[in-house]
Amino acid sequence: MIKVQNNTYDSSTVEASSYNYKEQILTVLFNHATYIYYNVDVSTYNNFATATSQGRALNEFIKGKFKFDKVNEDVKVEDI
Length: 80
Hints:
By secondary structure, the chain is of the alpha+beta class. It has helices at 42-49, 54-62, and strands spanning 4-8, 14-20, 25-30, 33-37, 68-73. A hairpin with a 2-residue loop joins strand 3 (25-30) and strand 4 (33-37).
């Protein structure tokens, strides 16, 4: 039985994701920050993970539909 699945993507914004099947937690690593989405059902996760564009799939299936936490954000040198 798979407990956690990790993926990397060829995407301009989404670098990787990790999905915990038992807890239904999707962690998405962007090139600028990491977000944790809660109570993401397996079907929605599969739609996201297997899409041809994770950025579009995130907007279509995830954003605005699940509670989330932003856990870090990179600070650009010019912002300091």
